[in-house]
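Sequence and structure are no longer studied apart. To make this concrete, we show below a single chain and its fold as tokens.
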Amino acid sequence: MLEHHSEASCAGANVVIASACDGAALTPLFRQYLAFYHRHPDEAEVREFLQARLAANECVIHVARVGDTQEIGGFTLIYPTYTSLGLRRSWILNDLFVAEQHRREGIARLLVHAVHRHAADTGAALVELETARSNRSAQRLYETEGYRRESEFVRYSRAFPAAPR
């Protein structure tokens, strides 16, 4: 994983790659993100999930630190994978969220640009993502950033129950 350093800044926000010690600070905003998708796990479960992903270097989380307080105003969470068809690394932009009070400040676009730089820096062939059909603002953002709706492949998923703890 890359060092905890500045990736980009604008509009009073500075984007950095989160470290394992940022998990607790990110937890409240991540819970807001989950609530947006009608998921409501408890705080400890979310904190444990984030800290485990960061500690194991299983993902990269970009956080937008905002204003004088440097509170976390938004984040992206990307997971590494590979494209067999492209014979290279790729990234899944799994989560992007901006706190309601910081929307329309350019933070989402700043975070997407940080993901693009990270993908380029790691030699990735592509970044893939999905968003809710009803999330029109996210779709507009992604389309203005060069993403195209998938038309060649059909996406499937299958859910499994959580394993007992």
